[in-house]
Design brief:
Aldehyde Dehydrogenase, Chain A, domain 1; single chain; globular; six-stranded mixed sheet; 22% strand; binds nicotinamide-adenine-dinucleotide; Aldehyde Dehydrogenase, Chain A, domain 2; 22 strands; alpha/beta
Length: 484
Amino acid sequence: MTLPILQNFIDGEWCESNTGNHFEVFDPAKGQPIALVPDGTSADVDAAVRAASEAFAGWRETPPLSRARYLFRLKEAFEDQFDEIAEVLTTEQGKAIDEARGEVRRMIENVEHATGVTTLMCGYTLEDIAKNIDCYGHRQPIGVFGCIAPYNFPAMVPWWFLPYALVSGNTFILKPSEQVPMTQGRIFEVIDEIGFPEGVVNLVNGSRDVVNALLNHPGISGISFVGSSPTARYIYQKCGETGKRVQSLGGAKNIVAVMADANLEAAMPSLLTSFYGCAGQRCLSGSILAPVGDIADRLVAQFSDAAKTIRVGNGLDEQTFMGPLISGAHRDRVVGYIERGIAEGAELVLDGRDISVDGYEDGFFVGPTIFDKVSPDMALASEEIFGPVVSIVRTADMDEVVELVNSRDYANAACIYTGSGAAAREFKYRVLPSMIGVNIGIAAPMSFFPFGGAGNSMFGDIKGHGQEIFQFFTDTKVVIERWF
Ligand code: NAD
């Protein structure tokens, strides 16, 4: 069977990459390749930067409300093609179709939020900063921005940045993950239909060569990156060297604390989604479940009973709760962590290694897995596994669970389940991660609040979306003015 070859979108046109090399894109539920994506080159990036640079002057002069009108049209078109986008997403990424719909909804919410540009991009002013002198700062777009995206949220993550960059008057180049390039390919068909001015928004497929070309290109003013922490650190350092603005979001090791007074029945649905949604491949997945005090045995029993009921299958099946992992290599990596956990002496309560899904025997599946009696120094409790493997670390009290959270290498998100407002306040006050859930699981901030962690989970200072994102995509030009 001949596989379709994906194209780039540059200067308002679909075009071939000039590379001779391609990667296979898989349907992870079937374990079969479904498309080829070019391993793009610096020449592809050059062409995109040229187009985006030429488009910048005209786009910048387009009034903010007129720029926002493109987004209003985009939102309508996304609503019309909502189900098709979600289906492509599940086909290449594997997550359950209902989760894919949730992801597309979150993508659209960023478009909606960005349309508030006429208030969100406003500067500020003060009269009489000295006698007869006034001062004002207005926000100006900067130029061409690049975005480098991960595989786990192929639709949403680039849209934490893209609509804000565009609506504030910049032009944009997106490089999706080479593991899931089809979703943005489908989304850019919608962008093509809407008819942005040529060069305003561009798509370049590829992997490291494209990333390095974006990082080194003098025509790029800033980079928004989301991916694993080692890559995020590399991007941050390179942008420092080449003098670019950068926001670089990395990996996670999220802890869910369950206090002895928690309502376990009410908590169970959000606990299951936090740990097993997207087969544990979220930067907001729970990874460590930490009972506090004498709730541990009850929690382990109820949580493992609930995990056993999870339906694993092809994400396109409406009954599926958990789909496959992204690739065979990643499945082997996750299985490797399970084997390491056994070797390190943790107690395997539920083993997802030997799962077989009827009709999808070649899919990259790992079933729900639970380890109890994990100690904080084991690999299970220290490294980002990014799969459906839950490590239970039993803790005695608030001090111990806070210490557990704050001693991980990452500081993305954390959550507490409790009936006590005082306990919830103490937890959210003391822990380092900067996205906190209270009785809600590891929940994602919506588009109008910032998204991003602390420590090794985020390099840079301005996070994804929220109101602050307009600072990332603009320079505040300050004018100090006197008239005679
Ligand atoms: P990844 O770091 O492997 O890849 C991310 C992007 O960087 C891809 O586009 C890839 O082509 C590129 N890349 C990878 N290695 C590179 C290198 N050495 N040089 C240049 N470019 C490189 O991440 P992934 O596996 O696609 O995504 C999963 C990771 O992303 C997890 O660690 C997850 O926690 C993280 N993530 C974080 C957030 C967040 O908000 N903090 C959100 C989603 C995912």
